[in-house]
Amino acid sequence: MTLDDLGGRVALVTGGSRGLGLNHARRLAEAGARVVVTDLTLESGMDSVPGVRAVPMDIRDTAAVRDLIADIVAHEGGLDIVVNNAGGASGYVDPGQDPVVAFRAVVELNVVATYAVCLAAAPVLPDGGRLILTSSSSAFRHTFDVPASYVAAKLGVVGLTRALARDLGEAGIAVNAVAPGFTPHEEMRKRIPERVESMTSAAVRDQRLKRPGTPDDISSAVLFLAGPGAGFMTGQVLLVDGGWTFV
Ligand SMILES: NC(=O)c1ccc[n+]([C@@H]2O[C@H](COP(=O)([O-])OP(=O)(O)OC[C@H]3O[C@@H](n4cnc5c(N)ncnc54)[C@H](O)[C@@H]3O)[C@@H](O)[C@H]2O)c1
Q: From ligand 1's centre to the CA of 101, what distance in Å?
């Protein structure tokens, strides 16, 4: 057995049809897990990724979240791992928008909806189950031009990780988070091509490790937290940022 052998496990990845979430889903499936991904809209061809079933859903819809968890248990026979990846601020903060409304929307997605997914999943997770949340290096060091709502929300994810680890420990459920540094990926290059290059150089300049982060760097941490190697870790946040935060 390797540290990230996930044979026989069932995993849910939110926001898993593109970006980092898609990479997590692929890597979990390669490690032997059966994977359900959910997203607002699904990239065509998602269902053809081996070991992955794709279901459209908005994680802010609490009733739909509960239905999806029940559907996974019915169709896959259980649920062992939840990777709460859906998040961010893009699409939730528009220029000219009331800043308080935008702030609420970002906290609603990253913290409240993530909490709702964890709350719905916890009762069906077995002893040994895993909840993995997604924070950000921006929660710890605020230099990129990210909105205050994102910083507050991703630090909120750290608090939520610790609180859930406390609440669910007796059930044998480990709760940890990854905090990626700036990690360019294909979807980002499509969405904001002009910014990706300058943000990558700015990140690499300040990192101790002088190369851009990759989706695989973040997925490797997710796989570790999902796998047998992390069975005695809970309430922790793994910063995967090439040393950007502690310059
Ligand atoms: N890429 C980075 O540099 C970076 C750095 C730090 C943290 N993160 C965090 O990692 C996660 C993934 O980042 P990414 O760069 O792949 O982001 P992304 O925006 O490319 O992908 C996020 C995915 O979540 C989905 N999503 C958004 N709102 C949703 C909702 N209400 N319901 C269901 N799905 C929803 C989107 O459709 C998208 O597919 C996010 O939580 C992000 O904040 C990313």
A: 20
